[in-house]
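Notebook, bench 3.
Goal today: get a predicted structure for Transcriptional regulator, AraC family from Celeribacter marinus so we can plan the truncation constructs. The sequence was checked against the plasmid map this morning, with no discrepancies at the termini. Length recorded as 258 residues. Pasting the sequence as submitted so the record is complete.
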Amino acid sequence: MVLGRARPKTLHTQDYHEICWLVNGKARLILNGRKCTLIEGDLTFIPPDTPHGLQGVGDDCHLVNIIIPATEIGALLARYSRAGQFFAAPSAAPVRIHRGIRALSRISTAAISLEAAPRTTLHLEAFLLPLIAELLNETKAAADGLPAWLQSALVVADDFEVLRDGAAGLVAMTGKSHAHVSRSMQKHFGMTPSDYMNARRMHHASRLLTGTPDTLADIAQTLGISNMSHFHRLFLARFSMTPRRYREKNQKGVVQPV
């Protein structure tokens, strides 16, 4: 699609995930009153319920966008939790990653194939999985540049003693200020300490739901979440279904708690 130069009259939201990228020109992403400039090769993951608008800058601004139901992303994250660093929770800031000309050509060619394919989960994942694998490989390679203090903290971030304290637990493991840790997490992972730790909490919640008979309240307490409404909101945002529905769908061979 070609983006017009007129400023959007209103920001819009959507109930699906969107992946978009510029194949030519420049654009302005307007998000919650803030503006950022997108250039050719910028790949942006926009989560649901995030007010935003796009505006072309100059002439000949071409944008490609893919819309994906939240249920499809929820099912994908249930199997590949690490993909959660790209598909943020609703209302979170979009993740933006720049692609070089070769990578941009690959994703554009894959999008053409997806457009011509039947609207099935199989064909959608044939598009998504190679893209996610490529981005994760790059993330892993970039991790070599992580500060030693952050690498050490992330190693223990999955310990329940740390998980229970959430972002504060992660920051405490670094010995740095919250602001400094937040800047480093944004730089290397495109997310805040709170987003990262909540993603890890929900990953462990999914494992406990399918591998133990623990009650939902016990699981939330194990992860340091005292407010059950908050626990349900986090889980629903991550997996597009309630914890109870997730357990019913995925748990096998474990006695259900009364």
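The chain has two domains: 16-143, 148-250. The domain at 16-143 is CATH 2.60.120.810 (Jelly Rolls).
Flagging this for group meeting.
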